[in-house]
Amino acid sequence: MRQDRKRGEKPASASVQEATRDERLHLAVVACGPRLEETLTMLKSALLFSAKPLHFHIFAEDHLHGSFGESLDLWPSVFQTRFNYTTYPITFPSENAKEWKKLFKPCASQRLFLPLILKDVDSLLYVDTDILFLQPVEEIWSLLSLFNSTHLAAMAPEHEEPRIAWYNRFARHPYYGKTGVNSGVMLMNMTRIREKYFKNDMTSVPLKWVELLMPLLQKYKLNITWGDQDLLNIIFHHNPESLYVFPCQWNYRPDHCIYGSNCLEAEQEGVFILHGNRGVYHDDKQPAFRAVYEAIQKYTFGDNLVQSLLLPLEAKLQETKHTYCGRASHMFTKRLKRSIGILQQETIEGR
Description:
Blueprint: E1 3-5, H1 14-23, E2 25-31, H2 36-49, E3 54-60, H3 62-73, H4 77-80, E4 83-88, H5 97-101, H6 114-117, E5 123-127, E6 131-133, H7 137-141, E7 153-157, H8 167-170, E8 181-189, H9 190-195, E9 197-198, E10 207-208, H10 209-220, H11 228-238, E11 243-245, H12 264-269, E12 273-275, H13 287-298, H14 305-318, H15 324-327, H16 330-348
Parallel strand pairs: 2-3, 2-5, 3-4, 7-11
Antiparallel strand pairs: 1-4, 5-8, 6-12, 7-8, 9-10
Helix pairs in contact: 13-14, 14-16
């Protein structure tokens, strides 16, 4: 059962309410299994630095709904006024629900159906649970304004270095570009997705999104490794004009530093969004990634961001310098420092 919670809404004129709705940024996540705390930490990072109001669309197994509500309701009221959230059950087309649910990771393929479920949402940022925002959500949201008339989604490359990339070496299916794309951070114009007819290799007739997904799964289910991400790669292989590719600092993963630094944009501008895939927030394989996760997780809303978040994180990152990613950890804090500085300036100015 879908549940809506509205935060801090005061009586206002219809025009003011409409303006508020228009500027709200929509963020979706799919949480199954032991992902509650990881998801809450991601949502916390989104809320910490963003000035614009957010609407969280949380797709989760039924037994997690109560825990999400209880946790979000405990966040301080000054922060609760800045977000709404809606929880949704995990739902797939009934005739193939079991196949969709077991694809790659539990429930991950739910993201493919977001344009069909969230019919009233025009644009949406989907992120995996293991994402951490190091700058305001509105920064990536602004990329929507860079879309041309054919773009309907945006993602980062799966790899920067073809010699260590997965898709060009191992894939048994079509994929986008030279090294494929990673779907852990996916910005969508869902109105365009719902309206477009997609070229495909199953029929000479272009298909709408709702018509495309099931035939795609049936054709490629024995040849895909990364589940729904592979299906998205197949779709955009045949429709490359529909994808806007943003640089790696918007989806920075261990692969960008474990073999030496290979994300030039992050070296220049810092990491914008950290993606701790393969469970690195919860093991000792990449302590620099874990340090960022634990710093945000342990931070208490309202505490001084420099004293209670930035400085403890920098101290912890110093202990990771023996690792490749630890040597690149100055990139993890570069954008974070900027985000904190902007918030402090706004506090001084009384915004």
